[in-house]
Amino acid sequence: MTERAGKVTGAVTVSVDGYSAGLHQTEERPFGDDGGDGTGAGLHAWMFETPDENRAEVEQMTAADAFVMGRNMFGPVRGAWDRPWNGWWGDDPPFHAPVFVLTHHAREPQPMAGGTTYHFVTDGIVAALDRARAAAGAGEVSVLGGATTLNQYLAAGLIDELRLHIAPLTLCAGTRLFEGVPALRLEQVSARAASLVTHVTYRVLR
């Protein structure tokens, strides 16, 4: 594995009880029972209903020089992976940088409008991160999730900074951050309360 250059961050929106998605996820409802209609309107209301209040955090989420995401964050849980599919993010995704998608299904790189190119990585989290670091140079790599992917990187000790966007609701079941992750020591870097979310950044201590 290459030596660390830029910072590796992890970012995710979670409920107060730690879930990044509810049960019953489908192609039409990627966040499942998320306190809204399943399209993110519950957990992610802070992005859609109060964007001006949270502009700095929204912009920060796509400001890295390379990204890593899990297959489910790129595309649907089931049903559409083997047909022509540009992912959840439309024809001009907000990343404008290389995105390395963890998957068991090999696929050619997929260039998109605006400078985003999806690269599909079949040989695990370390390989995906190495490729993202090489693409980012001395810049930041962001592991955007979902929680299952972020948990793997946290468990492997590969995250330097964790950025949580905590929505004021509970889901009680679903996909949970920190599931299967050993105990962590975190140092709070910043915290900011907004009307529909609290943004907290932690440094992961080693």
UniProtKB/TrEMBL annotation:
SUPFAM superfamilies: Dihydrofolate reductase-like (SSF53597). Residues 7-194 form the Bacterial bifunctional deaminase-reductase C-terminal domain. GO terms for molecular function: 5-amino-6-(5-phosphoribosylamino)uracil reductase activity. InterPro entries: DHFR-like_dom_sf (IPR024072), RibDG_C (IPR002734), Riboflavin_Biosynth_HTPR (IPR050765). Coiled coil: none annotated. One of its GO terms (biological process) is riboflavin biosynthetic process. This is Dihydrofolate reductase family protein.
